[in-house]
Amino acid sequence: MVEPGGEGPESPQPSGVQLLLWSVGSTMPAATLERELQQLRERWQPAPLLLLLPGEARYPSDWLLQLPVEGLLQQAQPEEIPGAVATLLEGGRVLELRPLAADADTGAPPPQGLGVWLLRSGLEQIEREQRRCQGWLQRSQGLLSQLMLRGRLRELAMARRLLLWLWGPISLAFADQPAPLDDPQPPRGTTITVRERSAIGVWQAIRGRLEGAIEAGLDNRSGQLLALEGLNAHHRRDLLLALISQLDLLLLRLRHDQLRGEALEQRWQELQPELRRLSLRAMAGEYVQLPQQGGLLKVAESLSAAAQLDGVDPELPAALPMLGCLVQAQPLLVEGRLLPPDEPKALLQLEALISNWLIRNGELIAADVLACCSEWPELRRYLLRTDLLPTRNLERLRNQLNAQQRWSSWFERPVQLYESQRLLYRLEAGAIAPLLLTEPRDAELRQLGWGQQLVTLSLEARDALAPQLQAALRRLGDLVVVVLTQVIGRAIGLVGRGVLQGLGRSVSRG
């Protein structure tokens, strides 16, 4: 046990020391804690270090994830410590951040201009309304009220995107510092256990976290209408679990092939359609038969033959960085630093990439399932939600999905490419949440059609006009001040002086 703030012994490390455990009894400044940890690492290396933090510690989650420790437990229970010690002694990693550990305030907020204030106030109002709707949705039991609340949440998400599109560049022009519009932070209540610090150990840790998130439920908080919502809860869960299982087999196959670089990514792309087909068959059930036109047909074979699973979602990021970590344990570039895949920040980014791959592949499969259900009424009772049994409801959902896809392709995607952003879908506990990842996308931007190029040109024109608008408003304000003070004010003064003189003459005559 090492006491907080202690200098420790000056003698070299004994040969029997296998683990360092530091229990911080009270909250200390972040700089002091980081300095003490660095000194411990230098003195006792290569022994792993387990840091125990109190529950009232209010360090930022993002800062805690990059501390140079193998184990970190916040408000740990006594029964949790032996398991963490055993994991560290076996060469693994342990991280557990409690939800109550809120991020600390780093200082006074920077001064805000008019644009930033308008933007932030609008975003705060939308966020309050979203939380209120989420609370009502969790307590609601009626199907109609749930549909109305989900529609209201989609409207609020669209209003937020429209607000960011309208006020984003203007707020940057009117403020001294840019306002953080979408700053993805690590989720609070994070628990990571890596049994072995290898590609297999990292994948097993991520797989366990994703399966736990899927089992907790899949409430849609992405702000988008998803085809996965059309499936009933049971088959939606089975589809994502089947994708994870097929991904596990595919990674095992790629490790055996020992491919690298472009050959690895090409092999990955070649195997994607077959992976989706096998996942669809696993979700539908190999032995399930349903009536169609007077006979019984196997659902898995019929869906596999009718579905078009060769498409590729253009918003899927390049697979090579993810494959390099999961197949060959290569480092991952995170916030300008190359980190081993077992580092907490790298592991969380890998998890976000895999979550996005799961959701987007599930969307491709679910969209084909909806198309097949429109032609096979008996299949709706087996795979879809009960409210989609009527043909009108099912076709309305498909039309809304098609309209959303066209809007995204013609407008939202060019905007994201121009702003070097990529929308990812992240699996959290019980929900599908959006995550904006900033990365260069110049090559994709140059491949846009002429209609989409017009959208980017309008954005560039708006950015160019924002400073001009600021200067014009400033000059207009100066002109109004001059007119009020020099012209109107002086005229009013002259009129008042004449009135007073007239009153004085009247009094003197009287």
Average pLDDT score: 79
Give me the secondary-structure category.
alpha/beta
Q: Order the strands across the largest sheet as they lie in space.
A: 1-2-3-4-5
Number of E-state strands: 12
Question: In summary, what is this structure?
Answer:
The chain has 15 helices and 12 strands.
How is this fold's topology laid out?
Blueprint: E1 20-23, H1 30-44, E2 49-53, H2 61-65, E3 71-74, H3 80-89, E4 93-96, H4 114-139, H5 143-174, E5 191-194, H6 199-215, E6 219-220, H7 233-257, H8 261-284, E7 289-292, E8 295-298, H9 299-306, H10 320-328, E9 332-334, E10 337-339, H11 344-375, H12 377-383, H13 391-418, E11 421-428, E12 431-438, H14 442-446, H15 450-509
Parallel strand pairs: 1-2, 2-3, 3-4, 6-12
Antiparallel strand pairs: 4-5, 7-8, 9-10, 11-12
What does this protein look like?
The chain has 510 residues and is α/β, with parallel strands linked by helices. The protein folds into 3 domains: 20-96, no CATH class; 114-174; 191-457, no CATH class. It is built from 15 helices and 12 strands. A 5-stranded mixed sheet has the order 1-2-3-4-5, sandwiched between helices. Strand 2, helix 2 and strand 3 form a beta-alpha-beta unit. The model is unreliable at 1-15, 100-111 and 170-185 (pLDDT under 50).
